[in-house]
Amino acid sequence: MLTPALAGFFLGGSLIIAIGAQNAYILRMGLLRHHVFWLCLFCAASDGLLIIAGVAGLGALVNAMPSLLRWLALFGFVFLAVYAFLAAKRALYPHAMKAANADKPSLVSALAICASFTWLNPHVYLDTVVLVGAFSTRYEDTARIAFGAGAVSASFIWFFGLGYGARLLAPVFARPSAWRILDGLIASSWRCLQFSYCELHWAVD
């Protein structure tokens, strides 16, 4: 039987390890070795705050405010549609990107993009606040805290592992086709969010 901390770790890991715009963006910045630490810290800390909120019992509040999730989904839909268009354009006209000559955003711009991927995605709230929060109710007192800590640690390990481990893939991404695939995945995330938006409407109606 898993301890509460391991249960939280595996649940958190299963939710966060997926091909999406946020993970693809961290992979891209990791390959370029650009603002890696701060971007990984921001994404992991954001997940951590939402998980703590869920374990603290705010999942019920989120469920009671479906209109809030709908607005977040709408803003996220518009933002990701624009970003997906740019990614699709890069996928059509790929080039081998290297840290020395790639177009690198400023730290503020990079963090703004990560913030949009994180805080404008309704599934982030459903996964962390609602789902992790719901599973945490199986435990009490210190066991519940350990469960939340395990879920938070999964986010930190994943994002920092993805960001700094990306450089190991640098030889692969020396080929334009590899960047085409990555940008294609980012572009396809727009369709995922579109589905999420429709799914969210169905779920709360």
Overview of this protein structure:
It is globular, with a radius of gyration of 18 Å. Residues 96-101 and 191-205 have low confidence and may be disordered. The chain is 79% helix and 0% strand. The chain has one domain (4-204). It has 205 residues and is an all-alpha fold.
Q: Count the helices. How many?
A: 8
The largest sheet, given as strand count, sense and whether it forms a barrel, is: none
Q: How much strand?
A: under 5%
Amount of helix: over 70%
**Tell me, what's the shape?**
globular
Secondary structure elements and pairings:
Layout: H1 4-16, H2 21-32, H3 36-63, H4 66-92, H5 107-119, H6 122-136, H7 141-165, H8 176-204
Helix pairs in contact: 1-6, 1-7, 2-3, 2-7, 2-8, 3-5, 3-6, 3-7, 4-8
Short key terms for the protein model shown above:
205 residues, 79% helix, globular, disordered C terminus
